[in-house]
Specification:
2 domains; Ubiquitin-like (UB roll); four-stranded mixed β-sheet; alpha/beta; 8 strands
């Protein structure tokens, strides 16, 4: 039995590139020239000849249209523009992080104010804030204190955020998530 040969140096297939020149499968295409003017519906051979006479490529812009829309332009410039557009979209993308603040049912007022100040800072940045109230030992008998603390947090942060996940118990801790408005 012979092992299959694996080529580790094989190039990755190029994806998401439109068909160009002779790879366009349609017989007739809607052609837009390099100046942006519509030349109308032409046979594919004539469209390729026009592109070659301008020393440019015929690029299939909209393959799902009938007939497909093709534009006469430089393929290198088209790839560059697509790459720039993708990087700009990625740069403008905002990822919301989840920041966690841990409290106890008997948290003092100064510590509470400090945590609320941090929560407001996170919410103004656009991050979600997860509040966790941990109960240890006998504190489980006084879960109402934890509920009161969560209600006070909701009241203090209502101008900057709204409750995404209402206070609920998970084992020995109560959690709540607030998202920015």
């Amino acid at each position: 039995m012979q092992k299959p040969k694996i080529n580790y140096f094989r190039r990755k297939p190029k994806i998401d590139l439109p068909r160009t020149n002779h790879r366009i499968r349609s017989i007739d295409v809607q052609v837009i020239n390099s100046a942006g003017e519509n030349l109308g519906i032409l046979p594919i051979k004539k469209a390729i000849e026009i592109a070659k006479s301008e020393e440019l490529d015929l690029i299939e812009i909209s393959p799902n249209a009938t007939p497909p829309v093709c534009k006469i332009m430089d393929m290198g410039k088209y790839k560059y523009d697509m790459q720039k557009k993708a990087s700009k979209a990625k740069k403008n993308q905002k990822t919301a992080a989840l920041k966690e603040l841990k409290l106890r049912p008997g948290t003092e007022i100064h510590d509470y104010n400090f945590k609320i100040k941090n929560a407001k800072k996170f919410l103004t940045k656009g991050d979600k804030v997860k509040f966790t109230v941990k109960f240890k030992g006998r504190e489980m008998q006084f879960t109402q204190q934890g509920r009161d603390l969560m209600d006070r947090i909701i009241e203090d942060t209502k101008e900057l955020g709204k409750v995404e996940l209402n206070p609920k118990f998970e084992g020995r801790q109560m959690i709540m998530i607030i998202q920015p408005n």
